[in-house]
Amino acid sequence: MTVAGVQKLIKRRGPFETNPSLLDYLTMDVYAFPAGHASRAAMVSKFFLSHLVLAVPLRVLLVLWAFCVGLSRVMIGRHHITDVISGFVIGYFQFRLVELVWMS
């Protein structure tokens, strides 16, 4: 909800050349700033890194997965790099909020 609220407030379009499809309008995925996929990837990976005991290779794979999610959004032309970076930051702060309120 945080990402959707910021997207509706900022109303920044992505770098794509084509107009959004009907499905994009139905799912309210019209605006690009901040990147929702990146925020969720950052929040999930931070949760797993903080609350599960994982071997080092799994920790590296988890961080690499979150990075690849963000990179893929830029590569397919749905987001600018700043959208993805801000999505990562918002995802981290969402995790901190959930940890503070819900998991304390």
UniProtKB/TrEMBL annotation:
Highest rank taxon of the organism: Eukaryota
A family per Pfam: PAP2
Domain Phosphatidic acid phosphatase type 2/haloperoxidase: 1-99
Alphabetic keyword roster: Membrane, Transmembrane, Transmembrane helix
Membrane-traversing stretches: 48-72, 84-103
PANTHER family listed in its UniProt record: INACTIVE PHOSPHOLIPID PHOSPHATASE 7 (PTHR14969:SF17), SPHINGOSINE-1-PHOSPHATE PHOSPHOHYDROLASE (PTHR14969)
Name assigned to this protein: Phosphatidic acid phosphatase type 2/haloperoxidase domain-containing protein
Organism: Felis catus (Cat)
